[in-house]
Amino acid sequence: MSAPPPRPGPFVRSPVVPRDGQWWLVSGAGSILASDPTFTSMLDGFAQAMAAADQAVADLRARQSEPPASGAGGQR
Q: The whole model's pTM is what?
C-alpha cells in the first residue's frame, strides 16, 4: 500500500492548515486536529482543486507571455 500524497499548502485567509500530514483548525486561542474523515477528505479534494486551478492560471499566464507563433495571423 502506498503512502497518501502530501497535502497542499494552507488556504489563504483560512483557519485550516496542513501540518505533518494532518489538517488543523487554527485560531488565536489555539489549534485543534481535524480528525473527521469526511471533513478532511473534503479539505483534501478542495486543496487539490485549488492547486489545479492555480496551475491552470500559471499555464495561461505563461502562454500569454510567449511571443505569437509566426504565421498565426488573425486576432486574439
A: 0.64
- Give the integer Cα–Cα distance in Å for 18 and 24: 6
Q: Is the pLDDT of residue 2 over 60?
A: no
Distance (Å, whole) CA 48 – CA 55: 11
Extended beta strands in 1-76, E state: 16-19, 22-27, 30-33
Order across the sheet with 16-19: list the strands: 16-19, 22-27, 30-33
pLDDT of residue 9: 59
C-alpha cell, 68: 505569437
Contact yes or no for 22/34 (Cβ under 8 A) = yes
**How far is it, in rounded angstroms, from Cα 25 to Cα 17?**
7
